[in-house]
Amino acid sequence: MRTAALQRPAEALAGRCRPPPAAALVAPPAPLPRRPRQPSSTLPQQLCRSAHRRQRLVAASAADPVQTAQQTAAAPAASSGSPEPEADVLIEFKDVWKSFGSKQILRGASFKIRRGEAVGIIGSSGTGKSTTLRLAAGLLQPDKGVVLIKGEPRRGLISDDDTSDKLKVGLVFQSGALFDSLTVGENVGFLLHEHTSLPQSKIQELVAESLGKVGLSGVEPLYPSELSGGMKKRVALARAIVRDEKHDNVEQVIMYDEPTAGLDPVASTVVEDLIRDLHEKHGEGHHHEPDGGSSTSSASSYAGSTSFDSLASANGGSPASANGRSRSSTAGAAPSGNGTSVTPLGALPAHKQPPPGGITSYIVVTHQHSTIRRAVDRIIFLHEGRVVWQGTVEEFDTTDEPIVRQFASGSLEGPIRYE
Ligand SMILES: Nc1ncnc2c1ncn2[C@@H]1O[C@H](COP(=O)(O)OP(=O)(O)OP(=O)(O)O)[C@@H](O)[C@H]1O
User: Fold this and answer.
1) CB 357 less than 6 A from any atom of ligand 1
2) What is the CATH number of domain 39-337+348-409?
3) Which residues pair with 365 in a beta bridge?
4) Helix axes 65-74 and 402-409, enclosed angle (nearest 10)
5) Under a CB-based contact definition with an 8 Å cutoff, are residues 225 and 296 in contact?
6) What is the distance in A from the centroid of ligand 1 to the CA of 116?
7) Mind listing the pLDDT tens digit for each residue in 221-263?
8) Which PROSITE patterns match (predicted)?
9) Residue with CA closest to ligand 1 atom 17
């Protein structure tokens, strides 16, 4: 058995750290059998209403369905006459453009992620989904447009000393981005070693706590090569939620890039349920709305639910590793001093106020139908670098939008073209 001792990073990494493997391409969507969904509708009612409004605006156009869909997705909700509340918008993309060399990837992507949401970002391969997550995490900068974190423009890339007292944005990479040459314990505690002065014993305690939350107690001494694919994904998750104590009172959004890619159906289910559970399960049966209703089930129970109170203990550092380098993925909302006046939490009713810390919302990029159905409530559809459709998972099944229908069916006929 190899030593379980966590070393300081300098020792741990000396000569042993290899860059994590590049994200593998994912197979196109496979029509997997439907699994039963969680029993309840899980979006806040206002979000469902707005999604219905959006969907009603969709007019299937044989002449130019892509254009129609793009116009639909861009149509302001205000067209319905009832503006959506802005106080709970945590992340917003406003007309974001991004290219790599001569390759234009994002072409004016606009969307909002609200407090309490479980959002899936889907779309064809290469359409810019992972790029979108990297922009939200601050690993990339837009060429044009703006990424707002709680209403404040993200300025510059995250840096090692970047901290946010407003929102933490964690990114769990498709590959897991684990360092092969570090033990599981070292991987999960990596950023605590790098960015805190916590004593080793405390780090070990926090690492054990985090691994316990993903059902992997006691695996600290193992190396990634000794784990199954599903276990690696869960270790990456544990690393994303490990507490750093300094940020215990900061709510966080976790973004998962293809969390179930390459997993068998059962291992996928484990990860999908874990994603939901980390977000919500501790609230079940605990919280009661003032009207007597219980917000036990879901993301929709959002800010007022004790699911977040108990998850506050799961809040923490969000390591992200890009190009083999570990970085803090703590989202720098903006230099301090800007305040939170743009999205005042006070605008939310008292019972919807977010608790300190906790995974407030999450975003999943996935091609897996099972993950869409089991782990998310609302879908954002990216096509050719723009958001062309948004709606609930239920609406995804019923919409006439040609792009969505083609994507869902895997048909070769339709507006989506593969070269
Ligand atoms: N750092 C980079 N440098 C150059 N090109 C890049 C970079 N990152 C992404 N790309 C390219 O941008 C395009 C979009 O990539 P991205 O990973 O965002 O797509 P995606 O929608 O997540 O695709 P998939 O579903 O296949 O994972 C791809 O063609 C990719 O090769």
Assistant:
1) no
2) 3.40.50.300
3) 121, 257
4) 110
5) no
6) 28
7) 999 888 888 888 888 888 887 777 666 677 788 899 988 887 8
8) ABC_TRANSPORTER_1, ABC_TRANSPORTER_2
9) 130
Q: What is the position in ligand 1's atom list of the atom closest to the CA of 134? A: 18
CA–CA distance, 257 with 186 (Å, rounded to integer): 22
**Cα atoms found within 13 Å of the Cα of residue 417, Cβ hemisphere only:** 4
The tokens for 166 are 């407003």
What mean pLDDT do residues 18-26 have? 31
Q: Which two tokens stand for residue 180?
A: 């092969």
| b/e map 384-416, b = 16+ CB within 10 Å | bbbbbbbbbbebbeebebbbbbbbbeeeeeebb
Ligand 1 in contact with 131 (CB < 6 A)? yes
- Rounded to the nearest whole angstrom, what is the distance from the C-alpha of residue 252 to the centroid of ligand 1? 25
What Rg value do the Cα atoms of the chain yield, rounded? 20
Q: How confident is the model at residue 165 (pLDDT cuts 50, 70, 90)?
A: low
Nearest to 129 by CA among 378, 363, 372: 363
Q: What is the pLDDT of residue 24?
A: 26
Q: Is 105 in the pocket of ligand 1 (CB under 6 A)?
A: yes
Tokens matching residue 70 = 């793009």
How far is 406 from 373, CA to CA, in rounded Å?
17
Q: Residue with structure tokens 């479980």?
A: 118
Model-level ipTM above the cut of 0.90 = yes
The residue contributing the CA closest to ligand 1 atom 3 is: 100
Mean pLDDT of 307-331: 26
C-beta separation of 146 from 135 below 8 A = no
The reply to whether ligand 1 has any atom less than 6 angstroms from the CB of 127 is yes
- C-alpha dihedral (163, 168, 91, 176), degrees to nearest 10: 120
Counting residues of the chain whose pLDDT is more than 70, the rounded percentage is 56
Ligand 1 pocket test target in 121, 129, 388 with most atoms within 8 Å of CB: 129
**In what order do the strands lie in the sheet containing 168-172?**
168-172, 252-257, 359-365, 118-123, 378-383, 386-392
Distance, in Å, from the CA atom of 275 to the CA atom of 256, rounded to the nearest integer, reads 9
Is there a contact between 60 and 68 (Cβ–Cβ < 8 Å)?
A: yes
Query: Which of 97, 121, 130 has most ligand 1 atoms within 8 Å of CB, for mutation?
Result: 130
